[in-house]
Input
Amino acid sequence: MNDARAAVSRELAAELRELGMREVDIDLYVRLVALGAVRVEEVPVRVRRRLVAAGLAGERDGGTTLYASDPRSSWTSKAAQAVWTQAGKIGPIHNLDTTGVSRVDHLRERCERVSQLADALFVRQGGLPAQHRSATSDPNVLALLTAEAILTAKREIVAVSRTPRLPHVALIWQAITDRMEAGVSYRRLTDFAELLEHGLAIVRRDIYDVGVRLRVLERERYSGSWFIIDRKYLVVQDDLPLAADWRSIGGAVTTEHARVLRYASRFDKLWQEAVDARTVVSLLQREADQLLEISRSAAPNVLPWVRDIIRAGKFTNHASQQEWSPAMVSDLVQRAQQLRVLTTTSDGHVVPAYPSGESVIEAARAGADIAAEEPCPVCWEESRHCQGHPEAAPSGSGTSRSTTS
Ligand SMILES: [Zn+2]
Output
């Protein structure tokens, strides 16, 4: 390594130390980034597992080779993850202002610094199969392969997904928005549970601002989760039952053409059966108004929280902003459950208890003429819930791209 690269390596190591990474992990990570892949038997198992779990490294060649993931993607997604979950802000990270939460803003700055340093050293490497397939039983490795395949997209990404989903959502989302900004189209099919977990404003923002063409389908009508990228790569996610009470996600990336085409035609068929998420969201908003009405009259202290859960689902940070204790939260959850305003999912997320549940999809299918209202391009609420943003003209598309499904 020449002097300049050695100096950057030292600077990178110092930044990683500041982030609290262990010395052994730093040594291996910097070596992978700067010198390329290594055989797994050359490195301690624990260090390898930690780097993979952190999304900083992946495995390929049947798990025999360890390589560094693209540092720009991995560190940018870490910054995004922090901003989304700790500051309650959502969107492609480069579009987000500083959060005003100094802990989060510092972490973000440091991640950006690490990203730049590592990118300057990075010897390009990746785990995608040149031909045929690459399989893994590690959800972290699969998430990384998925992001790598998405980053190759030139025309279209399609996805079918259902809960549970892969880890490193930020890494995958970052890859998708990166390609969409370059003009790649993204069609996605999902289940009802996701609309609840993400919240209506977040779903609207994905559709109207990011430009995701989103449709919803009843869970019993499909199985499995997969991505197809330019009809070249197919990423299939499998739900692996590892023990009676423990499941994991594994899967494979393949370029086998017959298999890719078979999944592409399955996608086309499901896409026809699925319902435009804009219509479903409009119907859910009407039910949300009923839930808000109940909260307003029966439990006014719960009202702003319910509103935030409807709006932003699991991304809400209302409870932590209010500095509610866990005991208080569980008390309020219980109260809201008694009022049939909120409910908890099997994953422990608190979500709105929409009266019609999943059958709202059938209602939307039957009433395809229901006009979806264009939301406010600032808060992503329908106009009656917008607190008056100047850009929110009724016809205004503001910064949004047009979306057709
Ligand atoms: Zn607004």
